[in-house]
């Protein structure tokens, strides 16, 4: 059976502030600069979720995109869209809400809801058009 990747793209909006509880206020300001401002700021994120697997002979699919959409709704949209990452999402109480850590959150959250988590191959997260993180579970 041939192997293929299939990718679903979704967009969500969140606000956050870059601040580490493991650093002093001065260190936070020095490292994160304007992104440490207590008022926070927002992003229109774009996430690309890729699954990889064998194309089933009978269905012609690696995974039904309707199922992938459902997983992304539960694992990404519900917890993150129109949320303050630092205040509304427990994971970010002790993880800085960088794009790297948001990508890891999405990966772990998808793994938890997918019927066959082994198919998850890649999470690509665009914080802006210019700031992009790829996470593949390593
Ligand atoms: N390694 C990381 N560095 C930074 C992150 C991050 O998530 N990982 N995030 C930020 C800020 O939160 C913010 O996203 C940066 O925004 P901004 O400077 O507005 O974005 P641009 O780079 O697109 O802005 P330009 O001024 O157009 O260059 C900072 N660092
Ligand atoms: Zn930001």
TrEMBL record:
- EC number(s) reported in the record: 4.2.3.12
Keyword hit for Zinc: yes
Q: Name one GO molecular function term.
A: 6-pyruvoyltetrahydropterin synthase activity
Which residue spans traverse the membrane?
none
Question: Which cofactor is recorded for it?
Answer: Zn(2+)
Q: Name one GO cellular component term.
A: mitochondrion
Lineage top rank: taxon? Eukaryota
A biological process term (GO) from this entry: tetrahydrobiopterin biosynthetic process
* Pathway field: Cofactor biosynthesis; tetrahydrobiopterin biosynthesis; tetrahydrobiopterin from 7,8-dihydroneopterin triphosphate: step 1/3
Keyword check for Zinc: yes
Report keywords, A-Z: Lyase, Metal-binding, Tetrahydrobiopterin biosynthesis, Zinc
Q: Name one Pfam family in it.
A: PTPS
**By its UniProt entry, which PANTHER family does this protein fall under?**
6-PYRUVOYL TETRAHYDROBIOPTERIN SYNTHASE, PYRUVOYL TETRAHYDROBIOPTERIN SYNTHASE
**Family to which this protein belongs:** Belongs to the PTPS family.
- Could you identify this protein by its name? 6-pyruvoyl tetrahydrobiopterin synthase
Q: Where does this protein come from, organism-wise?
A: Aphis gossypii
Lineage, broadest ranks: Eukaryota, Metazoa, Ecdysozoa, Arthropoda, Hexapoda
